[in-house]
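Researcher: Here's the sequence for the chain we discussed earlier.
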Amino acid sequence: MTSLCCVLQIRNWPKGADAAPTGRFYNSSQRSLGEDSRRGIEYNTGKPAKTGATINGWERIKMKHTAQTALGAIAALCAVGISVPAAAAWEPVRPVEFIVPAGTGGGADQMARTIQGIVTKHNLMKQPLVVINKSGGAGGEGFLDVKASGGNPHKIIITLSNLFTTPLATGIPFNWKDLTPVAMLALDEFVLWVNAEKPYKTAKEYVDAVKAAAPGSMKMGGTGSKQEDQIITVAVEKATGSKFTYIPYKGGGEVAVQLVGNHVDSTVNNPIEAVAQWRGGKLRPLCVFDAQPMNYDEQIVDGKSWKDIPTCKSQGLDMEYLMLRGIFMSPRATKDQVEYYVELFKKVRATPEWQDFMKTGAFNTTALTGADYAKWVEVEEKRHEVLMKDAGFLATPGN
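Model: Thanks. This is the structure I predict for it:
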């Protein structure tokens, strides 16, 4: 409960013949409705105003008297310390679109649909959360859609590294600052995968095979072009002096299927994108692109856990790469609208289903909001500018 006296200022109406508590009037025997006639409302009737509708002096006196009586009643409540309920916090009043700027089956898609399921199961929202994939233009379709929805709090987007790579590579008129940051939910790992039928048991064995093969004869599959998977691929090439033929697909789910079918020789999928195939004995992880092994010791298959996968650095590939899994809103979101989603995702992260999802996908569970989140994104944008430049992926003027 909030005391009305704390939030209300009572002022006397201006003195003079033309004073009135609302609308705009002109000094004539018949005064026009001004602002209110343009709203199409006729005083005292609630009917649509007619052209040239007017208010006479007696109607103005009644309006003034009514307003003064109401203010007097409020003042009396304040005087005796009676409180009234505070205004309700903002919440969605219609279904919320949850945009995924990537294809179905990939890491971002799986996370969005997991969140959707958690929200529904635990009744965390009064309105439905509807997942919509907009992967066109390396995710640019999704980002531009949300950017164009300024002032619409019923549209949010889950982001990955294409938050940076897509505008840098394509030159589309978009920057993460066009959106409203909400929360970092986690960071995603990248793992070097091969088909389990192949003889490679370590990253070194695979890299040696790539170096021994004719340049371009070994195929690396990945999500999109000039995005995180291809950035890592180029980094591996530079570190080893080898050359892959990079084949882009719409999402990590499709990438995993292509590797199972031996249509590509390796991938750098996120754990969640390939864990089912690993568990099924179809794929083999060789190393993780992080400074330290993943901290999950639950067995996945053949007594092996995520923690048993060595770092790529320990295998001679001196590189690290982690990817954002975060939430943004459309432009011009208000503080209470942002706060609603911050609290929503706190509730999501507290559920056992989310904890199981983090464990299954071997996520880094770092979470940020507010200024800390915005600062992290700003630093990552600068890092990706360097990575994209080194890989030769920056858009050239006029393209």
